[in-house]
């Protein structure tokens, strides 16, 4: 009798776990299309490189960014957005990594598309090796990034010496950013140019 009750409890628990798993929205990272993808904050082209990041809302809309600092800016402007998934790229091999699982390295002198100087790595050892090779850099977790000051290197911005290879003066956009994504649920084009990717039909 006791064994039978234990077996029944195990079956019930398995069913509950399966049901819970089916109820969760699972959004996988979306490939970068350089011909159309624009950063949802700065409106620059999103390159298929180590700096590209993205987030997907529970409604299935994916927003792409050319720099992790831009994604942070979007989140700060859309505090009530229901975010289902966030992904960053491994600096070494460009593999997509869940935002909370990555290890980050920051230094003001590190070049990135919008001069935020934050690089992401899929494992801590790789991040530590990078810091050792560079002789500088602060190791950070996703939780620590929440209190990061997200300052841009103005010298890089004004000299066009960031990760963008087109040499444009990115500093001209400072202070001109629109409040993008505030009406997430309305279906508006929040990037000012291209519509966010809608993944709701594929899940």
Automatic annotation (TrEMBL):
<feature type="compositionally biased region" description="Polar residues">
    <location>
        <begin position="191"/>
        <end position="203"/>
    </location>
</feature>
<feature type="signal peptide">
    <location>
        <begin position="1"/>
        <end position="20"/>
    </location>
</feature>
<dbReference type="Pfam" id="PF05573">
    <property type="entry name" value="NosL"/>
</dbReference>
<feature type="region of interest" description="Disordered">
    <location>
        <begin position="160"/>
        <end position="203"/>
    </location>
</feature>
<dbReference type="InterPro" id="IPR008719">
    <property type="entry name" value="N2O_reductase_NosL"/>
</dbReference>
<keyword id="KW-0732">Signal</keyword>
<protein>
    <recommendedName>
        <fullName>Copper chaperone NosL</fullName>
    </recommendedName>
</protein>
């Amino acid at each position: 009798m006791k064994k039978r009750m234990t077996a029944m409890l195990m079956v019930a628990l398995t069913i509950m776990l399966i049901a819970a798993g089916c109820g969760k929205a699972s959004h996988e990272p979306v490939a970068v299309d350089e011909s159309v993808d624009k950063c949802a904050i700065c409106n620059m082209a999103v390159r298929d490189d180590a700096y590209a990041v993205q987030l997907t809302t529970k409604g299935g809309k994916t927003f792409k960014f050319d720099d992790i600092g831009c994604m942070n800016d979007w989140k700060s402007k859309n505090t009530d957005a229901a975010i289902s998934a966030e992904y960053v790229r491994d600096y070494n091999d460009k593999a997509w990594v869940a935002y909370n699982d990555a290890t980050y390295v920051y230094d003001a002198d590190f070049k990135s598309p919008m001069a935020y100087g934050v690089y992401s790595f899929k494992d801590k050892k790789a991040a530590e090796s990078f810091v050792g090779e560079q002789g500088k850099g602060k190791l950070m977790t996703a939780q620590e990034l929440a209190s990061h000051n997200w300052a841009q290197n103005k010298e890089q911005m004004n000299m066009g010496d960031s990760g963008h290879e087109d040499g444009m003066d990115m500093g001209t956009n400072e202070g001109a950013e629109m409040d993008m994504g505030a009406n997430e649920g309305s279906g508006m084009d929040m990037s000012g140019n291209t519509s966010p990717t809608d993944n709701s039909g594929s899940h």
